[in-house]
Amino acid sequence: MAVTILDPNTALILIDLQQGILALPIVHPVQPVVQHASELAEAFRRHSAPVVLVTVTGAAPGRNEQVRNNGALPANWAELVPEVNQQPQDHTVSKKTWGAFTNTGLDQHLKQLGVTQVVIAGVATSIGVESTARQAQELGFHVTLAIDAMTDLNLDAHVNSITRIFPRLGETGSTQEIIALLDRSRA
């Protein structure tokens, strides 16, 4: 469903816009994705709406079929890209799982602020973004996804998330559509 409304208490969650992730081979040019995410962050801050900046700093335990790189991560792995322009009032989350809500206290933080809706963007669409959107929806938040402010490591996975999964979790829209709704709802 196309984005139609933003609740009065809506927060922005930006997933894994960090040096290490954005250095991986992603399917869309990184600059427009980061630019759109930055525009969303600035709009939310302008309206004194919560901004959550999420980074991944490890991996959940458990086996899978993929070979893990057990070496040390590069020193700047978890550093947010400068374009995000982290501000003191931004809430930061460091996660070790795909979703931003698992063992991070994010649910409690947002509920203490009275947040009822989240706008989610970032990398990777089918991993951190989708997992966080699923968790948010399961926790009772209304979910909106900024589809031009995300990308993935795999084009098929990205398309699947946007066309098949996201419409079942909430509403989708462009950065400009979301900012226009935010501006109108806060006027």
UniProtKB/TrEMBL annotation:
Alphabetized Gene3D superfamilies for the sequence: Isochorismatase-like
Official protein name in the record: Nicotinamidase/isochorismatase family protein
Keywords, sorted A to Z: Hydrolase
Record's keyword annotation contains Ribosomal protein: no
Superkingdom, taxonomy of origin: Bacteria
Stretches assigned to the Isochorismatase-like domain: 10-177
Gene Ontology molecular function: hydrolase activity
Hydrolase recorded as keyword: yes
Entries under Pfam families matching the protein: Isochorismatase
InterPro entries: Isochorismatase-like_dom, Isochorismatase-like_hydrls, Isochorismatase-like_sf
